[in-house]
Write a sequence for this structure.
């Protein structure tokens, strides 16, 4: 009998290799702080308490921590996403009543692989399928705002309670904003050519085994982490600078709870900016550490992610300006309310 494993056995084991590496992941993650201390203070021999040392420690610790969390969660979300093709997503939302459709659309927006860059094809596909305008907006709001990157980073930097409240309030914004837009009957502000399109043909979903779904999870890690790692490093580098050099009371002076205007001002500032969760959340973490109120900082983050100027420019191809401004106003109001809510709780 041959001592080597048959080729099909090796391929079978190879499919499960990412899962077999999980113990090594947990061992490394558990010892990150010790490894960082050893590298900064023993290997580099940096003096404790100095601004540069604090900034460097923050960067060396946060970069692998965030990238490891992203890798783990995106891998499992990538597997989950294999169950949600665009065709299945549209089919799930067809024929649903307004409020039920809003809830389902916002919930699906969390786990489906769509961002602001896919706003137009998604919008067209939903409208072609007869899905109400308000339901479509619930999905378009939730998909970029409540993504796995944002949830992972918030969990890693602030804990599970903050991440959970963020998901919950984000869902409320997406559901409520979509419902309001639907109740206002704003279809007249959609470009006429959109409704002239005929509904596309739904494709049958391919039935595949769980082992075959592992590869898409691994591919999702390569694709998403490959795109956002540079934003992670830039965001953490900025955060490290804030962590090491910005005075403790500087951010509190205009982003603290005592400044009543801080929440709406942060939303107004955030809308024209463009970043993704990977780039903006490490900055938010450093701002909070230096005295910015949690609600104010999260409102700023949500406006950058959920109301980005590039997405508004993209949507202008299918929406008239009154509907875009209504969308900004409704979602912006929801974000401001969430900011005040977080400030009152924390």
């Amino acid at each position: 009998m041959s001592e080597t494993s048959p080729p099909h056995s090796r391929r079978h084991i190879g499919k499960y290799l990412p899962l077999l590496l999980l113990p090594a992941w947990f061992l490394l993650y558990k010892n990150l702080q010790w490894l960082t201390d050893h590298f900064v203070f023993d290997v580099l021999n940096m003096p404790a308490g100095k601004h540069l040392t604090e900034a460097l420690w923050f960067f060396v610790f946060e970069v692998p921590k965030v990238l490891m969390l992203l890798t783990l969660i995106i891998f499992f979300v990538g597997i989950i996403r294999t169950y949600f093709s665009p065709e299945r997503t549209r089919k799930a939302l067809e024929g649903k009543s307004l409020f039920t459709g809003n809830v389902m659309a916002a919930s699906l927006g969390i786990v489906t692989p769509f961002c602001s860059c896919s706003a137009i094809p998604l919008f067209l596909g939903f409208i072609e399928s007869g899905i109400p305008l308000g339901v479509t907006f619930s999905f378009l709001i939730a998909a970029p705002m409540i993504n796995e990157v944002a949830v992972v980073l918030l969990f890693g930097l602030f804990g599970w309670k903050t991440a959970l409240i963020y998901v919950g309030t984000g869902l409320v914004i997406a559901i409520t904003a979509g419902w309001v837009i639907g109740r206002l009957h704003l279809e007249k502000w959609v470009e006429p050519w959109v409704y002239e399109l005929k509904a596309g043909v739904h494709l049958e979903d391919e039935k595949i085994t769980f082992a075959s779904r592992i590869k898409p999870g691994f591919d999702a890690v390569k694709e998403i982490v490959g795109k956002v790692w540079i934003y992670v490093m830039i965001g953490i580098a900025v955060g490290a600078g804030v962590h090491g050099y910005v005075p403790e009371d500087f951010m509190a002076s205009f982003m603290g709870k005592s400044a009543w205007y801080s929440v709406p001002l942060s939303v107004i500032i955030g809308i024209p900016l463009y970043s993704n969760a990977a780039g903006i959340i490490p900055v938010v973490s450093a701002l909070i550490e230096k005295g910015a109120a949690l609600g104010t900082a999260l409102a700023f983050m949500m406006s950058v992610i959920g109301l980005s100027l590039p997405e508004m420019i993209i949507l202008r191809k299918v929406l008239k300006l009154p509907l875009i401004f209504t969308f900004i106003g409704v979602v912006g109001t929801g974000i401001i309310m969430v900011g005040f809510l977080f400030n009152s709780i924390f």
In short: The chain has one domain: 14-198+215-345. Residues 199-205 have pLDDT under 50 and may be disordered. The CA atoms of residues 104 and 265 lie 32 Å apart. Residues 210-245 form the longest helix (36 residues).
